[in-house]
Amino acid sequence: MNIDDIPRPTVKRLSLYLRQLKQLQKDRVKTISSRELARLLDTSDAQVRKDFAYFGAFGKRGVGYHVDELTWNISDIMQLNITRKVIIIGAGALGCALANYKEFKNKGFIISAIFDSDQSKEGLQCGKLRVENIKNMRKYLKSEEISIAIIAVPAGSAQDVADAVVEAGIKHVLSFSPVSINVPGTVQLRSVDLSLELEQLSFGM
Amino acid sequence: MNIDDIPRPTVKRLSLYLRQLKQLQKDRVKTISSRELARLLDTSDAQVRKDFAYFGAFGKRGVGYHVDELTWNISDIMQLNITRKVIIIGAGALGCALANYKEFKNKGFIISAIFDSDQSKEGLQCGKLRVENIKNMRKYLKSEEISIAIIAVPAGSAQDVADAVVEAGIKHVLSFSPVSINVPGTVQLRSVDLSLELEQLSFGM
DNA sequence: GGATGTGAATGCATTCACAGCA
DNA sequence: TGCTGTGAATGCATTCACATCC
Known about the structure:
The structure is a homodimer.
Chain A: H1 8-26, E1 31-32, H2 34-41, H3 45-53, E2 59-60, E3 64-66, H4 67-77, E4 84-89, H5 93-99, H6 102-106, E5 109-116, E6 125-126, E7 129-133, H7 137-143, E8 148-151, H8 155-167, E9 172-175, E10 188-191, H9 194-203
Parallel strand pairs in A: 4-5, 4-8, 5-7, 8-9, 9-10
Antiparallel strand pairs in A: 1-3, 2-3, 6-7
Helix pairs in contact in A: 1-4, 2-3
Chain A binds a DNA duplex through residues 7-10, 33-35, 44-47, 49-50, 52-53, 57-65.
């Protein structure tokens, strides 16, 4: 079964299912039906079953899905049983908050360094991390096996920073800058624009 | 023309168009074709034209779209020429960073108060804002005209906080907690799960 | 000529509905 | 009986292709 044969919306929902399933594990729930899972995630039971069916038959007819088994299967599909290192560019308030965001570690993402182009910030502490000069980024990435970068710089420098990390070998970019960025097709880009989220929310989406 | 007659994906793209158009205004670009706008936003020219067409005929054949005019029209459709007040619940690193995020103000969102359930945080400063006890939230909302709340609390208390703000009359909730939350149908909910973003990114989405 | 606006065609995800199994 | 798994039907957004207009 090839990942490309699976609808993208389905793949995106996998992490939502996984999050909910881990919650259910905490609550000592052993088994769950597609209907109940759908209710929790505000979707339809048919949707849930179809999504899981793409990856094989996980459920038991008349019973539902075994929570532990399903959790393990999805984690396996998403290759989430490993840890990955991540760098952050931009040591402003947002960058620092992200650098110390506990949930990242829980999901296997380790923030291994934070860089800033502002010379005067070099040496400052972001929680446990020391702010490094961005000029050292390239060398740092040569010595470490890191493919993910978080960009949390102002709009004006976002594209330049993106170009720089891509040039340094980064393959996945998560941008928090409020501009649209272009990267080569070989690089995965995901953009979270916080004010845009508010805008869309208040418009009713 | 009713908003409900317009495809949701189109409506979601409106803010992306708007963001790009404002960038173009800065760059003194007077006019732009659907093809060029599509290239900048990594979509298709047909998509751009169809999106705009839902709201009427904004373009000039043989020329393209007038940037200023289009910007104004979209802002008008999205009712973004007003400012809105927003409260934040959760004065952790993330909540504080959000409270001082400059881009919000640029888009017309004013963070008017930040609350936390931790008594010991009361009175601390988050940039220019004083952290208030969450017990005062209800009263505060009665005295102010506020319909938007940002939730930046740990997973465990997210649902409780959501219930509380909804009960206090909030109509739009932007949650940064890594759990799925349920709200009444009358309330708009949008969820940004930062680790989930990383997860999906590293999985290739 | 050049780019918009738009019906028609296409592609795809969701929903339906039910056979099949515990 | 209860719930999964799945082909078929539906619904909808995207893409195509071209008539239309500056």
